[in-house]
Amino acid sequence: MSQRAGDYTRIRFGRVSDDRGSDFFIPELCTVPAISVLVLAGELLVFVLLLSGGALSWERLGIMSLFVQWVVLASSGVLCVLRGWLGRFEVATGAFISYGVVVVVTLALSVGAGFVLPSGTGEVDWVMVFRNVLISAILAGMMLRYLYVQHRFRAQEQSELHSRIQALQSRIRPHFLFNSMNIIASLIATDPETAETVVEDLSELFRASLNDVGNQVSLEDELALCERYVRIEGLRLGDRLRVEWDVGDVPGEVRIPLLTLQPLLENAIYHGIQPLPEGGTIRIRVASEDDEIHVEISNPLPGPEYRDDINSAGNRMAITNIRSRLEVLYGDRAVFSAEVVDGVYVTRLSFPGGVA
Fold first, then answer.
1. Looking at domain 172-352, which of 3.60.15.10, 3.30.565.10, 3.30.465.10, 3.10.590.10 is its CATH number?
2. 79 with 29: CB under 8 angstroms?
3. 240-288: per-residue pLDDT in tens?
């Protein structure tokens, strides 16, 4: 077994690690605004139930309000307490437990209502209990589905926003642009054809950075963009940068979010090759297996005397950004890992091989 050193991060999409409880799709329900909304929604439900049948009276309104608010506040209180724990489960499991909490709370309060409410008879009206639980189950299912869709929508918006910001601020970095311009200027007189190629490569990189980052492109196009980036950096770093491509037979219909692999390759160059005086080799492997696409990018890890922080803000931002975009797109069908193996920093990515 290989020796592993350094920081290790592994993310299974759909399964939330201990520090991601705050990202659970059910929002924080213990805040004053959340409680206010819940109380208002509960009271609106009371009016709907009151107007749907039965006698209209202040007494009935008060009793129904008391019972519904018990259910709403008790359920939200339990979910608030359990939220951090629920965030450790997969989304489906956490949603199922949350759904069960609401149903159980409604059942318990419905059974106890016959003994506690002012109009209680001291006996359990099982027809009324079944009716309350059924209404609660339907509304809880609708509400959980709404919260989940809203959470995914917000995650996608934030991911694409971060992607946009990163594309404008980090993907084509200012010093990369200046270096490219200097390369072009130095080649115009001696090698105009290479200078023209650099201009074309640079224009394609800018086109991708200014494009809608939420777009998906073919894996072939994404790899072509990576090749353009490597060609430009190769002119700057010379023999210090060596790249080995191992691209297998990948179905042509495979698509991937724009600027997914290029930032990983950029990190490999800036954090792995550039600090080393002798340079190093980056290996890119792409393979298709069992309807899944596997991508592996490895680069040497500089020693302490040369290394900047491999977990620097820019590197973490790129990894978090890519993780979020793929999580929204593929859910738990995608796997992302970044680890140090025998002094080599290895990034692995797997996702479904069909059309997303």
1. 3.30.565.10
2. yes
3. 999 999 998 888 778 888 778 888 898 899 888 999 989 999 999 999 8
